[in-house]
Inverse folding.
């Protein structure tokens, strides 16, 4: 990349030269070669003054390591216009975040999406570093490093490289076309020369930005002087944007009401999340711990984030529970209430809440060379957690052994741990005090790994007839028996979810006996959230039941009843025929829905419902339900099916035939399309009954607690 000193000197030189030529200082001297830089030099002094939008700090600062994790710095989450991105400043740099924002504000809006692009990587979007000799677009052009004196010219030059790389990844012929454009235009960009196409392109980027900032007259002049480059650059600006049509450029930044923030599925305030951890009911609250990167929008620096709820719907994020230490970063695990005080962590006034987690050795500089081990931490108030001073409680066994799930086995007054070992092998352990563990036996789970869960469930609601369920990360399960020593599977592996985004499933511990439900949450892995300050979401909590079918025992899943707390306007239909050209749902608006219907196919080959443009389709001929590119087998008993659909801003969960078949998927519908539509092929099916609730946001209180654009950490 161009070095900053050379870059700045070039700007100063041509600016002075352009001024002196105008004043006649060089009168009589030989005329210099005309370049685009020289021609538009006078625009430089006003560059960026046309922009009126101000950058806002959403959160920060948070400590980070920069320059290959060797130098400390501070990071801020920032919004500028309709773009959200990260700014990082090395501690050695003597400049305030506000000074950096003033420079970034001078970048024309057409280039600002570059900040979002670079913030999608694991490094900082725009980083200002003292330990650099020049500014550069690094790491396959996916983040920006700037020296402290980098101005808007330098930032836009490097932005040119970012956008060039973004384009060539899908159109590798771009640079060859640029070389052809240079030859056809017959004018150089600057004294730097046009022998290197990618540098000529980056220089043109800031000249185009100057003209764009100055107005239509100057932009038209540039297109006249360099028509081929101008056409190609306008293509690059468009191609480099990520699916601009689908995103509709309608990004709302009001906190907890951002365009792609789910409104009744849990997301952290900011930054990355993945596995749900330590699901437990304690002291009148449902606790949701979660894998969290408190300093970045992507995976890394694993910490246990923490949120609480009275009803599994309205969540409040509180302080992080468990931070990394010398044993490793904090990977997944579980939590239990130690009612019998077997650990000795409880007090006369409070039972101990004990978290069991994997210390992921080797995942941080501080834990280099250490293995994965199992550790515990406890709390007597549900907020402040203390790590056991003799951690780990279970040493390394094999590979990346991890994700301990612990339950209380009342018949023998002991604790049972299910632990992932390696490959497709799990193991069960026992303990009397949560501190010392003895292995019972291995559990083979063909083709599956990670994030075990292990629990008993009544069959068909009969508490005297219980089966034990062992689940793998993707929710698939084995059903069998357990005598306190040995789990005996009595089924093959049974598929749990047919959607695209369902992983790291866990169920709640210590739900009061008066309630008795088994409640499950998953990470909806792989969702996309463009320009959002957070990354990834949880599924909606579901109640599980084991029911008997002709083919054997099956787990059914349905949304917890607490969803009723966000019910808004109710619509009902009965005994309605689905006719071509008629849409029963045309007057329904809102975009967030709980849709429940029972359909008599009446000989129709196909029936479905379009939700914000995405179809859920049942094929009677194939006996298959299709949603977002995924298929699930469903029998229509007596020609009838039931469907329940939860639709949020970024996801769709489909529950068919009373939850026997479930499809959990992420989706990015057009934010402006909130419509619904029933459709059919062949004979006209009959809607026996349909109830539709427009849903309210579960984040209303969180918005009120977050004034302006700030985030309280």
């Amino acid at each position: 990349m161009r070095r900053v000193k050379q870059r700045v000197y070039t700007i100063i030189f041509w600016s002075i030269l352009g001024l002196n030529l105008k004043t006649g200082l060089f009168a009589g001297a030989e005329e210099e070669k005309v370049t685009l830089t020289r021609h538009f030099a006078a625009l430089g002094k006003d560059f960026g003054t046309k922009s009126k939008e101000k950058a806002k700090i959403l959160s920060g600062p948070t400590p980070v390591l920069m320059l290959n994790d060797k130098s400390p710095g501070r990071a801020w989450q920032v919004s500028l216009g309709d773009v959200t991105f990260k700014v990082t400043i090395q501690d050695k740099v003597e400049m305030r975040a506000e000074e950096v924002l003033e420079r970034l504000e001078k970048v024309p809006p057409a280039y600002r999406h570059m900040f979002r692009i670079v913030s999608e990587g694991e490094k900082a979007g725009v980083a200002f570093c003292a330990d650099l000799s020049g500014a550069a677009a690094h790491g396959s052009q996916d983040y920006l490093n700037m020296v402290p004196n980098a101005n808007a010219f330098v930032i836009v030059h490097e932005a040119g490289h970012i956008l060039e790389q973004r384009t060539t990844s899908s159109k590798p012929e771009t640079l060859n076309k640029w070389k052809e454009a240079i030859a056809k235009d017959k004018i150089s960009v600057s004294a730097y020369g046009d022998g290197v196409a990618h540098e000529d392109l980056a220089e043109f980027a800031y000249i185009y930005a100057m003209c764009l900032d100055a107005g239509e007259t100057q932009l038209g002049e540039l297109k006249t002087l360099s028509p081929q480059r101008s056409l190609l650059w306008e293509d690059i600006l468009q191609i480099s944007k990520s699916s601009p049509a689908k995103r509709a450029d309608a990004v709302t930044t009001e906190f907890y009401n951002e365009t792609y923030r789910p409104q009744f599925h849990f997301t952290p305030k900011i930054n990355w999340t993945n596995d749900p951890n330590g699901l437990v009911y304690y002291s009148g609250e449902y606790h949701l711990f979660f894998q969290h990167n408190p300093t970045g929008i992507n995976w890394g620096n694993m910490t246990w984030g923490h949120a609480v709820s009275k009803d599994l719907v309205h969540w409040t994020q509180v302080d992080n529970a468990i931070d990394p230490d010398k044993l490793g970063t904090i990977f997944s695990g579980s939590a239990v209430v130690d009612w019998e005080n077997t650990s000795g962590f409880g007090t006369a006034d409070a039972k101990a809440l004990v978290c069991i987690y994997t210390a992921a050795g080797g995942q941080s500089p501080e834990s280099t060379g250490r293995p994965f081990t199992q550790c515990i931490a406890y709390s007597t108030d549900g907020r402040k957690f203390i790590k056991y001073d003799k951690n780990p409680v279970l040493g390394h066994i094999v590979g990346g052994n991890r994700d301990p799930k612990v339950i209380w086995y009342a018949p023998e007054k002991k604790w049972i741990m299910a632990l992932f070992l390696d490959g497709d092998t799990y193991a069960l352990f026992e303990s009397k005090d949560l501190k010392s563990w003895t292995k019972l036996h291995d559990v083979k789970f063909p083709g599956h790994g990670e994030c075990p869960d292990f629990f008993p469930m009544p069959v068909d609601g009969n508490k005297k007839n219980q089966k034990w369920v062992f689940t793998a990360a993707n929710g698939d399960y084995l059903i069998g028996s357990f005598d306190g020593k040995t789990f005996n599977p009595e089924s093959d592996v049974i598929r749990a979810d047919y959607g695209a985004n369902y992983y790291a499933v866990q169920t709640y511990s210590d739900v009061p006996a008066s309630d008795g439900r088994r409640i499950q949450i998953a990470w909806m892995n792989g969702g996309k959230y463009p320009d959002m300050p957070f990354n990834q979401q949880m599924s909606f909590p579901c109640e599980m039941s084991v029911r008997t079918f002709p083919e054997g025992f099956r787990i059914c899943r349905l949304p917890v009843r607490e969803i009723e707390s966000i019910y808004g306007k109710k619509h009902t239909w009965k005994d309605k025929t689905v006719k071509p050209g008629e849409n029963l749902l045309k007057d329904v608006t809102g975009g967030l829905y709980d849709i429940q219907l029972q359909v008599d196919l009446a000989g129709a080959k196909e029936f479905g419902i379009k939700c914000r443009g995405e179809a859920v389709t049942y094929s009677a001929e194939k006996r298959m339900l299709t949603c977002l590119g995924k298929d699930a087998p469903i029998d229509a008993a007596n020609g009838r099916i039931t469907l329940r659909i939860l639709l949020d801003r970024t996801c769709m969960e489909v529950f068919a035939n009373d939850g026997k078949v479930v499809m959990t998927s992420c989706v990015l519908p057009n934010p402006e399309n909130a419509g619904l539509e029933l459709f059919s092929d062949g004979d006209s099916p009959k809607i026996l009954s349909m109830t539709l609730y427009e849903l309210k946001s579960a984040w209303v209180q969180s918005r009120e607690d977050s004034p302006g654009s700030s985030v309280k950490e």
Remarks:
- The chain has three domains: 4-242, 271-559, 561-695.
- The domain at 271-559 is CATH 2.115.10.20 (Tachylectin-2; Chain A).
- The longest strand covers residues 55-66.
